Amino acid sequence: METGTAGGLGASGPLAQGREFVWTNADFARVQALIYQRAGISLHDGKHAMVYSRLSRRLRETGHGSFKDYLGWLETHDGPEWQEFVNALTTNLTAFFREQHHFEIFASHLRSRPSGSPWRVWCNAASTGEEPYSIVITALEALGASASFKLVASDIDSKVLATAANGVYRVDSLKGLSQERLHRFFLRGKGANDGMVRAKPELRRLIEFMSVNLIRDDWPFREPFDVVFCRNVMIYFDGPTQRKVLERIHRVLKPGGMLFVGHAENFSESRDLFTLRGKTVYERR
Question: At 67, phi and psi to the nearest 5?
């Protein structure tokens, strides 16, 4: 990790660091503060290289010669660059049917109600769409094609959300799916699109994609949800932020509703809100 004062780095120049731009501890601290304010993300001190790499592209795109100038400009403007800043610093690691046991529990939960019961589900870290499509595939398999099922899929990153809504993927990214699922739920590309697949309309019509910032208290939901998937999001938040988000999820989830979280996430300190019902599966009190 980088050390030294801003003056020392400036005097030696960015090339002495092997970098295109000067990068100081003060720059990193400003980035930490700004992404925490905007997205609730707590960047730990080991993220210097990642932040430099991702934000350097924004400096080139916006024509700024230093992080100091770029961050100063960002702080005095409230335009679309803020979304680009957030997009650059969010992590979008995902896969179809990641953490398979959740989908087995979800399918069993869907079958527990009388046939024809309506379902409202929220996936609040949609990323590039693999998780939302896995959710609706599970629902169609469990409930049938005429299911009364609606999924809201949200993310803070506008670019990955556009990819998710498009529903186009490389065939090799679906290698974990059975041939039966591939044939039933995806269309294979031909010609110039060979090697690609697209989610069928029957999947996409069940999903409403939207941008939602989890740390803002302006969630646009009028009706409560039966199930919420909030997986591998909270690991980027500090304790107080996690608690605020859990309280808001509690408000939009029906009593007895299910909350699925990531494999590294544990909310035992929020027993007043949720009861553990399985491996990283909680029930709303």
Answer: -65, -35
